[in-house]
Target: NAD(P)-dependent oxidoreductase
Amino acid sequence: MRGLILVTGASSSPGFKTLARLRELGYDVLGVYNQHPVDGSVRWDLTNPTGLLDQYKPSAVVHMAAMGDVDGCEDDVESCYRVNAVATRDVARWCLRAGARLFYLSTDYVFRGDRGLYGEADAPRPINYYGLTKLLGEESVLAVDGVVVRVAWIYGFGPGRQNFGRTVVEKLSRGEEVKAIVDQWGSPTLNTLIAEMITKLLPINYSGVLHAAGPRLSRYEFALAIAKAFNFPTELVKPISISQLSFKAPRPRDSSLDSSRAVKILGIPVNDINYTLAIFKKEWESFKYASH
Model:
């Protein structure tokens, strides 16, 4: 793909990884952030999302900027709507006018979560405000023939909010117990593979929704898999029920995604937990070395 690729949300975990991977591959790429500066990136004003697009005129936009605090979205619905729905709508309209391609990172939380292993053709039905605003963003992207990449339970090393996978590794490495929910299921997705899948999507002619997430696991199963892969004592992982926790926003009970189409199209076994945790473990070794 020729021309500039603009990556929004460059200070997020998947945004940072995607920006770095595109640079490694020699793309002309610019990262933009809202609050947390990233080297080689510029600030994006969410009150004027198209101003920066007019300035740099990218040939493709990878839109990863979002208000992702699920409970925070319930507390500040106005900001959540402005960031996840309105800004995405404005970016989509700009891409339509400019003839630019648009790739949008979305979420499993667009689903109700009453059965799991959702496919791309299944009808969304969000049960919290975060999921609703992300679905509104999806609709804007699909209206301009963009690509909606749904992922779930993003984990890995890098900047951005702390995530469950990283917390599990850090706690177990210190010999601390990890409490993990046994009765909520999702599809843990490694940030490194999100970046890899985006780069694979760029040169191919694909539009519409694509599920690109990990395998169906409960948080307890995921924590146990990490313990085994990293050779930590599995007895440190303790099961708890979701009913023992209190959340502002309701959570889907089983919002796992069927990513078989992405595996076939992109050739990346994102739904193979052994494959993804081998990468995660290698990154942990590098992270430990760099932090000492």
Observations:
- The first strand starts at residue 5 and ends at 8.
- The mean pLDDT is 96.
- The domain at 5-156+191-214+253-271 is CATH 3.40.50.720 (Rossmann fold).
